[in-house]
Amino acid sequence: EGNNVLPGDTSQVAAKRGVHSTTLSRALLQAPVYLVPPMLIAIPFKRFVTMHPTLTVPLTTYCLLVCFGIGLPATVAVFPQIAEIDPKDVDTKKMSKRKPNEGQSLRITV
Q1: What is the pLDDT of residue 9?
Q2: What is the DSSP string of 11-64?
Q3: Alpha carbon distance, N-terminus to C-terminus of the chain
Q4: What integer pLDDT is reported at residue 51 of this predicted model?
Q5: What distance in Å separates the CA atoms of residue 102 and residue 27, rounded to the nearest whole number?
Q6: Quick one: how far is CA 37 from the chain centroid?
Q7: 67 neighbors 32 (Cβ within 8 angstroms)
């Protein structure tokens, strides 16, 4: 269990970690939608799509919806909403406000 960050305080280190985590999660969010459906259409369903070209759009749409429906929760679950940061990594002026015996990790809500 960590300690909550002091109310009204900010930390540049925590903010930087939050921005990096958010950026990476947004980039990872696109992978199931942009990579998986084209691979499914090109490899396993290639023969089916060649034989029935009118079903290409419905099949692609279905693959997109399924991949997004499975991929969205998976990519959101990769990055937790509450993160912990080691007190040694926090800005030194923030640590001066804390009691000396509080060496536990800090809990930060992203």
Answers
A1: 63
A2: -HHHHHHHHHHHHHHHHHHTHHHHTHHHHHHHTTTHHHHHH-GGGHHHHHHHHH
A3: 17
A4: 93
A5: 36
A6: 20
A7: yes
